[in-house]
Design brief:
Elements (H helix, E strand, L loop, with lengths): L20 E2 L46 E2 L4 E5 L10 E7 L8 E6 L4 E9 L2 E8 L5 E7 L8 E6 L11 E8 L5 E10 L2 E7 L8 E6 L6 E9 L2 E8 L4 E7 L8 E6 L4 E8 L5 E9 L6 E7 L8 E6 L15 E9 L2 E9 L3 E7 L8 E6 L12 E6 L5 E7 L5 E7 L8 E6 L12 E6 L3
Parallel strand pairs: 2-27
Antiparallel strand pairs: 1-19, 3-30, 4-5, 5-6, 6-7, 8-9, 9-10, 10-11, 12-13, 13-14, 14-15, 16-17, 17-18, 18-19, 20-21, 21-22, 22-23, 24-25, 25-26, 26-27, 28-29, 29-30
Length: about 450
């Protein structure tokens, strides 16, 4: 999840380029290994093969700009977990019932501690923090899943090895295996590879075992791979794409054929979303389903939801990255969009709205209306402006028309958000994590709990 970390090379890119997007249909494409311009040096570039595209480049219209609504009273915010010590580096937050007690807990990747921390909900809205596992080299994503299928929740941790730019093979993937009594042993699944940013589990080859899809940002070399589970924590790796800059992978049956497919977001130089369509037996056909001709677009994250409730998995997508700029901060094209799944591997682009520094888009039914709204946080913004938005709601009217509402101006520099019933009310609360790589270092927080106010 390089979206949370410095190191995306922006050197040599022309921000004045016209922003265009292409939405692509179903013809396979092939991408060769790319070398990008590094900060401070420019290695010789290798040509990248251009996929054959079955549709023309289009420029989707943005929603009509209007002044955002402001609702600072919707949530009560309060720090949760351990107090701040120095400048927090929380790269990822997620929620789930880790101990099986029926209450939703919080997991966070703390890169200052090189640890995954567990905030156990001991009573409604009350949390006790402990270190689930330390000595993890730059953990940036924690995925809760019963990986060994023994009835309890395990955790798969993606480790970059180092949060700042590095092209060495220092990435790893670690399984924290639960013994059923919430004692977690670390089992290495992948080591000495390009920096790992995300991993998700699913049975990709139909053999009944959970396999893995893995994003490896690397730096000037990276990959997307899937790992066939051979049993006994043994795996057979298959590289799907050899390009740097993979931030996220997500797994869903995108084309409706009954087999889980993989979507991957690439953000280093090329700003693209790839779809790897699964035959059902672990063989994949790749194509690009989104791309921007603005190489400075700032891709920062994807997630899966059924936004229009048609039974097909859609893709939420944010672009708000600002790392490695001479002046880190907002850009006029930053915002949130969704790729509507039209079936059979076809997608339609929709801009949801503009948002400076947009990160970590998630879909949440905040009002229990049966309609999914979109929540996003801001990592890079004009933080000298006290009115800069750090937490934003895009409220869905049920017809996928969205009203932008600012929920908070601080804490600043939040780069991850998750939702769940975090106070026993049955209503979704939020938890956010902040990562402070650049000044200003004020209005800081480590982990913040956002409880909905009572009606």
């Amino acid at each position: 999840m390089e979206r949370t970390l410095p190191g995306k090379s922006r050197a040599g890119l022309d921000p004045r380029r016209t922003l265009q997007h292409w939405i692509l249909a179903s013809r396979p494409c092939v991408a060769a290994l790319a070398l990008i311009v590094l900060s401070g040096c420019a290695p010789e570039a290798r040509p990248r093969s251009t996929p054959t595209r079955s549709t023309s480049v289009a420029t989707p219209a943005s929603p009509t700009a209007s002044a955002p609504e402001i609702d600072l009273e919707r949530f009560v915010s309060l720090p949760v977990g351990q107090p701040i010590a120095g400048k927090p580096w929380i790269s990822h937050v997620t929620t789930g019932d880790l101990d099986g007690d029926g209450r939703t807990d919080i997991l966070a990747c703390d890169d200052k501690l090189n640890a995954v921390v567990w905030l156990r909900q001991t009573a409604p809205g009350t949390f006790a923090e402990s270190i689930l596992r330390d000595q993890l080299p730059a953990p940036v994503h924690a995925e809760i899943v019963d990986f060994d299928r023994d009835g309890d929740a395990d955790v798969i941790v993606s480790c970059m090895g180092q949060v700042f730019p590095n092209n060495d093979k220092i990435g790893s993937l670690v399984l924290l295996e639960n013994d059923g009594r919430q004692t977690f042993s670390a089992q290495p699944l992948l080591e000495q590879v390009a920096r790992v940013t995300d991993a998700r589990a699913a049975d990709l080859d139909g053999d009944g075992r959970l396999d893995l899809a893995v994003a490896q940002f690397g730096y000037n070399q990276g990959e997307v791979r899937w790992m066939r589970n051979l049993g006994g924590n043994r795996f057979e790796s298959h590289v799907l794409l050899s390009l740097p800059g993979a931030i996220n992978v997500c797994i869903a049956d995108f084309n409706g054929d009954g087999a889980p497919d993989i979507a991957a977001l690439i953000s280093q130089n090329y700003e693209e979303i790839y779809l790897f369509e699964n035959s059902g037996f672990g063989t994949f056909t790749q194509k690009i389903i989104f791309g921007s001709t603005n190489e400075d677009y700032g891709s920062s994250g994807i997630s899966i939801c059924d936004l229009n409730r048609d039974g097909r998995p859609d893709i939420l997508y944010s672009n708000g990255d600002g790392f490695a700029y001479a002046d880190p901060g907002k850009r006029p094209w930053h915002g949130v969009q969704w790729l509507e799944n039209r079936g059979q591997g076809f997608f339609k682009y929709h801009r949801i709205g503009d948002m400076d520094g947009a990160y970590s888009p998630i879909a949440v039914d905040l009002e229990n209306r049966g309609v999914l709204d979109v929540i996003c946080v801001s990592g890079f913004n004009d933080w000298k402006n006290p009115r800069a938005a750090s937490l934003v709601l895009f409220r869905n009217d049920g017809q996928q028309r969205f009203t932008r509402t600012v929920l908070a101006h601080q804490p600043i520099q939040m780069i991850s958000v998750a939702a769940g019933d975090l106070d026993g009310s049955g209503r979704p609360s939020l938890v956010t994590g902040s990562f402070y790589a650049y000044p200003p270092f004020d209005n800081m927080a480590r982990l913040t709990l956002w409880k909905p106010r009572k009606p």
